[in-house]
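Progress against Task 2.4 (sequence-to-structure conversion) is shown through the following example record, which the project officer requested during the mid-term review.
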Amino acid sequence: MGTTASGAGATAAGATTAGGATAGAAADVRSGADVRPGSAGGGSATAVDRPEGVDLADPAFWRLPATVRAAAFAELRRLPAPARFGAGPGRGGRDQGFHALVRHADVVEASRTPGVFLSGPGVTTPEPARWVRLLFGDSMVNLDDPRHAQLRRIVSRAFTPRLLSRVEADIRRVATELVDRVEHERPPDFVNAVAAELPFRVICDMMGIPAEIRRVILDQVNHASEHTGVARPLLQRLRTPGRGLRALARMQGTVAALGRERRRRPADDLISALVTADVDGRRLTGRELGAFFSLLLVAGVETTRNALAHGLHLLTAHPGQRALLLGDLDRHLGGAVDEIVRHSTPIIQFRRTLAVDHRLGGPDGPLLRAGEKVVLYYGSANHDETVFADPGAFDITRTPNPHLGFGGGGPHYCLGAHLARQEMKVLYRELFTRLPEARSVGEPEIAPSSFDHRVRALRFTF
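Structure tokens generated for the chain above:
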């Protein structure tokens, strides 16, 4: 969430890269023959049979009911080593196989050992093409140190106490306006009316995006990310990459132009801070600014939107937890937000590439070879029975709650985790204080995505 996943987490709290999943279908990996670790195709030291009928590389898996997928991940967590999926030639003849890291400890290890588990080759599936990265610039999620650390320092320096104070005031103002609208207009869809509007307006205010171009940018974001992780027929796959890239190019061009203007005439906003900040003689270039803005919008808006929508439905589906929360918002709101993020996990997965041979979990653990891919499944880690008692339960009093909804730690931990938590807490407080009967109607419309736990629509009433 925030600026990464979670993202997810959300951020996140991570996110679509500049041209990563938008360049094509993020779920268009092909399920080849099962190459087990230790075989000629795998090269790792430990052989393991994956559960029959479970193929995380097959788009059909992500169309299965949530309960079926949860049971499959539970089986994978019980295996003695990570199962391997998706073997077979991909773009450029490269092997598309990956090891699925589904346990909490394994996801944390991969996240906190960035010198072994690299992000630079690309964290989305498929990895972004080289020409796309050259054209659009690299998102921070697709970088390793020292370049990642340098960009993160520039961004962190731009988030001044004055800016953060103004952002918190903006969150309260926007939340109030949205609940005013809900109360007077009674819109039917919580996603479009509330969950998507709050983070989008807050980020645009924070960046200093002029009001007259915001709707255009929102349309461009939607075109760029609408098919991320969703399997589609061949003809659609051939058409939509161009559409998504054109939308991304227009959006980044708009922001780069704003950056040039703010260099000449700085204002009290994040764009000005990013293009004028001087950290070790560096500030964001126009292309870097465009890539960062894409990350903010797709990661910060999409993941927070999904968490807000999942949260309203979870509190509706669990009336006892809802009553507990509304009975003492001050006491339980923070715990409710973290449990919503854990339970729903807005970002499903990111990938890493092994820089060197590495034994997962210690000297006696399974061997992963240099050059192999691993995929970090945050939702599975957030339901690991060895870490969370009764992980399928929704419990806003869960303590401790070491969820990985904003990442597993390390240098790519969600830069916007605090912002995402603030947005959720302020919105829920405003909504349930003024409209305590607000609740979802029916089931949310969920996109069958392998990348994010996306809510397309959620009917609600009060």
